[in-house]
From TrEMBL:
Keywords annotated in UniProt: Calcium, Glycoprotein, Hydrolase, Metal-binding
Protein name (database record): ARSJ Arylsulfatase
Pfam family, one: Sulfatase
Organism of provenance: Motacilla alba
Biased composition (Basic and acidic residues): 512-525
Source superkingdom: Eukaryota
Amino acid sequence: GYLAWGGRRGDAGEAPGDLLGEEPAAGAPRSQPHIIFILADDQGFRDVGYHGSEIRTPTLDKLAAEGVKLENYYVQPMCTPSRSQLITGKYQIHTGLQHSIIRPTQPNCLPLDNVTLPQKLKEVGYSTHMVGKWHLGFYRRECMPTQRGFDSFFGSLLGSGDYYTHFKCDSPGICGYDLYENDNAAWDHDNGIYSTQMYTQKVQQILASHNPRKPIFLYIAYQAVHSPLQAPGRYFEHYRSINNINRRRYAAMLACLDEAINNVTLALRKYGYYENSIIIYSSDNGGQPMAGGSNWPLRGSKGTYWEGGIRAVGFVHSPLLKNKGSVCKELVHITDWFPTLITLAEGQIDEDIQLDGYDVWETISEGRRSPRVDILHNIDPIYTKAKNGSWAAGYGIWNTAIQSAIRVNHWKLLTGNPGYSDWVPPQAFSNAGPNRWHNERVSWSAGKTVWLFNITADPYERVDLSARHPEVVKQLLRRLSQFNKTAVPVRYPPKDPRSNPKLNGGVWGPWFKEDEKKKKSDKSKGANKQKKIKSKKKAN
């Protein structure tokens, strides 16, 4: 059925006009577009057919070939940071989420004073639905997806979990169920269905029950292809020849994901959305070689600021694109979707929101120059400091012990400890299981704490130019320093024992009760008043 979208009609491929009367004539003014944002999890840069992978992805290849491939497209190196930047249009240094990810036991979430993409789309009449992985915190009810702009939510709150049982252990004895429908645990859906297929069924239900004449924003954040490496047996069919067990499982997971996206696309056509839709596909970070992913020939992996951690698979597919079948090599970053989609939806961006994203629709659709000339990949002041870093190594402008990375035009500068820095060829995967801490591993690189690359000329980061171009290094360090002046404090609180699912009916979910805090603060306020009255009497 992959190639049947164009002409054939049948149960899954009716043309929209068959269902809903005539489509508007070409050139007629269209209403607000339907926006479908599909975010894959941990898909490596090489892990798509059109990047030369041995894993077949016919749906992704076809959608990308008929749309616009984003071949200079950047995300963040881990789950929470990319998701936070997508939904706010802001760099991590401006939300306080610049270190690592939100752990299940941390009382932390995307700060509530940030306006979100679904909230802005709701303002202009969109129905907003989220299916899949949230990973932006849930310790308070106000942090939940339904409180952050989504009319409905079906999916998981944590960063990973079992694809069939939806259980997750954060550490021995700290285990719970993690599948939600809106604000409640979705025990009814615990039917042992593989999450990629279950989420796709939910998307089909949403599309079937919504009126396609009214705009919809559908955010589909699949769990695949993040570890644990699990897939239904039939998807292993084509990959028995892959010796490495992790790569074989990963290939089966990706094959299932590709089929799921085919089914989503067929549903968009069947129910009359397709002609006025914009489908955006993106990975949230680079692949994890220890868990089957491949970023070859890029350097590094998930959790690092090398290109393999942050350069992503991405494309836009839409009948509304002007330059279909093209490749966009202009600089695009995940923060850019916020202003781009709000503008397409005819929404307003408040002047007081300090965005880091740019409207890149004309860049993508018409091939114009990108308004973006730089990307702050991140500044993480609490990541393990580089042993040999110093202010002197940063020319007195920047302390090179601090982990940071920035891109300005063709130049990319890294300081501190940028993370696992090898190039991992596809055939070199070990048979070791996915190591949970692999993406946090610290590797010291012969005492260096500053690297400079011309990414346009050297996308694989093989030739460090920091010694040859000290003036460029100084220029980029100054830019880093400017960004750092605008940073807010890091939010990375310690574990809260109240987060244990055993205290919450065996479910991961909000545990922080606002009332308790108010009562305590009211009591202390009362006590303070009494003290003040007593001290006044004494003074008198």
